[in-house]
Amino acid sequence: MMLPELRETVSRLHAELVRYNLVAWTAGNVSGRAPGGDLFVIKPSGVSYDELTPEAMVVCDLEGNLVEGDYAPSSDTAAHAYTYRHMPEVNGVVHTHSTYASAWAARAEPIPCVLTAMADEFGGEIPVGPFALIGNDDIGKGIVATLSGHRSPAVLMQNHGVFTIGDSAKAAVKAAVMCEDVARTVHVARQLGEPLPIPQADIDHLYDRYQNVYGQRSPL
């Protein structure tokens, strides 16, 4: 995928955040790593979602410096850049303040794995990362420290919101959508009583099946 195509993809994926009610006003962002690994495309700061176009997307290096584009990059650019620098397997990062997941983040409480859909997608609980102020590497450091070696592609940054990672920008968006979905369901379940945990062996089985068997597979 070359830069023009990646700019189109990242621009289009922002519409999915709106479609699934994960963002309000201009908050939230999607980024995607470019081929070669030393550049990424991200949303410009403070631009309305209905004004986003491929041409409006900005290109930054892995230090977060603007390389190409007519707008200032997202205020979360440093967090995305740090994540890409320290997690070479990551090719997409998403940030939202989606309502239910952010409510768990406000409590600094991990979302327990009490749904098979969570075991499938997250391989266990959705963890909480540390409180960090925006504008430097601190959020990125929290993302990397929390998710390194963890199955979950999502982290709830304390008092802030959701960051997700993926092997593509689309995968990171999917993780953000699924994170909000299970955050809402587990919240509702707790209103009815204490949700029942899934045994670890069953979580492992469900995660392996979903990651390696579920869906369409390319023929050998």
Automatic annotation (TrEMBL):
Enzyme Commission number(s) from the entry: 5.1.3.4
Key words of the record: Metal-binding, Zinc
Pfam families in alphabetical order: Aldolase_II
Entries under InterPro entries matching the protein: Aldolase_class_II_sugar_metab (IPR050197), Aldolase_II/adducin_N (IPR001303), Aldolase_II/adducin_N_sf (IPR036409)
Domain of life of the organism encoding this protein: Bacteria
Cofactors: Zn(2+)
Catalytic activity annotation: L-ribulose 5-phosphate = D-xylulose 5-phosphate
All residue ranges annotated as the Class II aldolase/adducin N-terminal domain in the record: 8-187
EC class: isomerase
Family: Belongs to the aldolase class II family. AraD/FucA subfamily.
PANTHER family recorded: FUCULOSE PHOSPHATE ALDOLASE, L-RIBULOSE-5-PHOSPHATE 4-EPIMERASE SGBE
Protein name: L-ribulose-5-phosphate 4-epimerase
Species of provenance: Sphaerisporangium rhizosphaerae
Lineage: Bacteria, Bacillati, Actinomycetota, Actinomycetes, Streptosporangiales
